[in-house]
Write a structure and sequence with these properties.
The protein contains 8 helices and 2 strands, in the order H-H-H-H-H-E-H-E-H-H.
């Protein structure tokens, strides 16, 4: 390696021409695999760095939500429970829209909804079910979303409109 021959294209060609056909095939497959692995690592680094930045920015924005404590009809524990129930109803394969609508009935005021949104926070949303699944992790095919983002991804039609109407009734942007 110290003689600089491996960096010289003519030397590489000379070495390659002295290989047997099976060795050439193995070298070619190894080279392709190496390029694929390096490409994948670079891709993951770019995608995950952007996702981490997006999540950090979204979490920072949630801190600016002003919750008027005097208007709350739920306590912190209830807000966290509602947020967890909503997450459980949407996470993984399928969506439990009945649970979503039932849980949202406990949200009576704008302050309650903002408290639940803040408690939900920002969670990775995976396009193929659970964001923490090996598929989402391996492909980087998930994105950070707040509660509204999860609703928009998981619900459609009349289910989505029912949730929008809760936000609208409580004067919270969707």
């Amino acid at each position: 390696m110290g003689n600089g021959r491996l960096g010289n294209p003519l030397a590489v060609a000379a070495v390659a021409s002295s290989l047997k056909p099976g060795e050439k095939k193995a070298l070619l497959i190894g080279g392709i695999a190496l390029v694929a692995v390096v490409g994948y690592i670079v891709y993951r680094k770019i995608v995950l760095t952007k996702a981490d930045t997006d999540k950090t920015e979204m979490e920072a924005n949630l801190r600016y939500l002003t919750v008027k404590k005097k208007e709350l009809t739920i306590n912190e524990g209830k807000a966290m429970l509602i947020a967890q129930q909503l997450f459980d109803a949407m996470n993984g394969m399928g969506t439990d829209s009945k649970t979503i609508h039932s849980v949202l009935e406990d949200v009576k005021t704008q302050a309650d909804l903002l408290y639940v949104i803040r408690s939900f926070g920002v969670k990775q949303y995976g396009k193929f079910g659970e964001a923490s699944s090996w598929i989402a992790k391996a492909t980087g095919y998930s994105s950070p979303l707040n509660l509204s983002g999860w609703f928009k991804e998981e619900l459609s039609g009349s289910d989505l409109e029912r949730v929008r109407s809760v936000y609208k009734r409580l004067d919270v942007p969707f």
